[in-house]
Amino acid sequence: MQPLEKKSTTQTYVLKGSINGDFDDFIKIRYEDQIDSVDVINNSFQFEGKVSSPKAFQFIFDSITSSEVFYLENDTLVFDIISDKVELDKEVFKDYGVRQLNGGKTQELQSYVNSLLKSTPKSKKNRTMLLNTMDSLIKIHPNHDYLGKLLSDLSMNQDLLYTDVRSLVSKMNVDELNPEDVAVLEQYQQKRRNYQIGSEIPSFELISLTSDPVLLKSEFSKLNLIVFWNSWCEDCISKQEQLLEAYRTYKAEGFEIIGVSVDTNQQDWIKAESQESFPWKSLRVKKGFTGEMASEMGILDLPQNYLVDKKGRIIEINLSLDELKTILSALLD
Q1: What is the C-alpha separation between 197 and 331, in angstroms, rounded?
Q2: Stated pTM of the model
């Protein structure tokens, strides 16, 4: 059974914990547009209340310091907080470490999802599995802030494609979700809409190994796999090594691979290229992730790939090696 497959029957939340180190007499939490505070007594605190659905929240320690985001739900949530002091440029600042000891069903879900994503690299097959998983969870919890955050991340990292995310968003109560997550989701959905399957990638200007400007489409053949990577991404290099057999098999039939680096440093890219000596085209996005092609297409997570035809029309996105071979065999054999 997946976490959150059943709703909690608990009607209220108890958020409690202990604080070690120098601390004020009270502690605050912030969720939605609310701020709540309780006294710290004998290094312990306890909040009680009720939320209509799980909500993102943060501990607030002072006017400039807050914790990472956790999720408040009608359950018993237990935290351990350590207050310490750090010195930076001869100034002393307070530093806070927060550890969640028990987080109810949302913590279980986060562990489940993290394990799932780690074991399922980007592919068409895994997208279907992720889509079905998200669909089943959202049907039960359409207001859950963590699912909104997760959906935003899946769009941003392109683990799910534009149409997948759009179908899931239509089943959520977006007005009830964390506005910050919704804003990121909308930002990346706009990018995904512009570069979804069937769209045409324009002829972006990239940089060659000799620092010359090159138009992307000038390198196109009949079928082209655009592979986004950079020099410090070991998985990127490993995935490219796996492409060698397919490239040699289908190169003469009109298959081309174009490695597009998002390295900001030209020399880092050149060094990696000289070490690997991949036989296909190699170009770089000037300014890396903030450069025109990477920024417009919303490339953040690596590696990623786009299979396009000779006009730049997107045929598929983030294919596994086996999925790529199946398409090449169907179209080029």
Answers
A1: 17
A2: 0.88
